[in-house]
Design brief:
The radius of gyration is 15 Å and the shape is globular. It has one domain. Helices cover 0% and strands 50% of the residues. With 126 residues, the protein is an all-beta fold.
Length: 126
C-alpha cells in the first residue's frame, strides 16, 4: 500500500495523485441567465439566484469527483430548472425546487464517470 500524494498547485487548487481539483471554502456565484453554466474548474461549490426558469449546464468537468450547487429563488419565486444531462437522482427522479421566495435548495453531485453523475438533495427550503 502506498501513500496518496496531495499538493497545492495554486490558490484554491490542489492536486491529488497529479489530478488538479479546485477547492474553496466559499461557493462561487454563477451568472444568472437563460442557461446557467457552472464552471467546475474554478470551484467545487457553486451558487446562483434564479430570476426565471433556467437550464443548468456544466463546463470543465474533468477531474472533478464531487461538487455542490445551491439554487436560490428570487423575490418573485416559483422558478424551475432543467438539469444538465447525465444525472441519476437518489429516489429515481429529479427533485422539485422549493418555490418560496428567497429560499435556497442545496444539491450534491458525485461524478462516477465522464458525464455521469449521482445527484443528491442536501437540503431544501433554507
Amino acid at each position: 500500500m502506498s501513500d496518496t500524494t496531495i499538493s497545492r498547485v495554486s490558490a484554491g487548487v490542489i492536486a491529488v495523485e497529479g489530478k488538479t481539483i479546485p477547492f474553496s471554502l466559499l461557493p462561487s456565484t454563477a451568472t444568472d441567465g437563460a442557461t446557467v453554466t457552472f464552471d467546475l474548474s474554478t470551484n467545487n461549490k457553486h451558487q446562483v439566484t434564479i430570476a426565471g426558469n433556467r437550464t443548468l449546464a456544466l463546463s470543465n468537468t474533468t477531474n472533478i469527483p464531487a461538487f455542490m450547487i445551491n439554487i436560490k429563488q428570487d423575490a418573485t419565486s416559483s422558478r424551475t430548472v432543467t438539469w444538465f444531462s447525465g444525472i441519476t437522482w437518489a429516489g429515481g427522479s429529479a427533485p422539485t425546487l422549493t418555490t418560496t421566495a428567497n429560499k435556497t435548495d442545496s444539491f450534491g453531485f458525485q461524478q462516477i464517470s465522464a458525464g455521469v453523475y449521482l445527484g443528491f438533495v442536501i437540503a431544501q427550503n433554507i
